[in-house]
Amino acid sequence: MLEAQFQKIGLNDNEREVYLAILRAGKITHERVSRATGVNRTTVYSIAEKLKKLGLISEDLGAKVSYLSSEGAEALSRMFEKEEGRLHEQKKTAEEIARELQHMTKGENYSVPKIKFVEEDDLNGYLYKRYGAWVQSGANYDSTWWGFEDHSFTEKYGTFIDWCWKQEPGNLQVRFFTNQADVEKEMSKKYRNRFIKPLAEENSFDSCFWVCGDYIIMVRSRERPHYLVEIYDTVLARNQRQLFKSLWDASK
């Protein structure tokens, strides 16, 4: 019966017999343990070292002949306390590391940018496909699209713009700088939450740059081939959003 139980706590047959011999004797030499158990003396020395590390026995080296002493049967119940303490500390450390890693992956300083390039053949479909994700991301902040709108996009993709405003709740706002163009003024008259500030003619730009939540979208539609670049980056988007907001507030 005890054989199986000793094996469960990590002691093989020889180790069990050596331990029991020391326990029965209370204090005994390596040689006498070897004679009592039939385990050769070299193996007894090796086993004794293991039992000492487990806290089951101690060794008296003060005399000419060293003696092995039992720490009592209760030492068996204590043999894993040190290991449990070490494991507990390791668990606490692992939990602390896990919390830090969670903070890192969620923290803005560790955002991983994702970049998508869309060619002209797929551009129109991509606008419709991704619009919901852009709006949802923007809703996590101020529900405002910031940036610059090239009037060529409004001219060539006006159907998409009209479709967008039909989808949206009333809290969505667009605040775009634009070129001096009648098409931009007419589009803003159609939708009360589409605010524009035309730039001076000498500051004309020829591509769109939108900041929508954690997304930055750039669209080139002035000349062919048209294309779109989508960047998902929390930090970069936040910086650009703050930049456009500051420019908007500072402009007349």
UniProtKB/TrEMBL annotation:
Residues covered by the Transcription regulator TrmB N-terminal domain: 7-62
Superkingdom field: Bacteria
Gene3D superfamilies (UniProt xref): Winged helix-like DNA-binding domain superfamily/Winged helix DNA-binding domain (1.10.10.10)
PANTHER family given in the database record: HTH-TYPE TRANSCRIPTIONAL REGULATOR TRMBL2
Protein name: Transcription regulator TrmB N-terminal domain-containing protein
Organism: Candidatus Sungbacteria bacterium RIFCSPHIGHO2_02_FULL_51_29
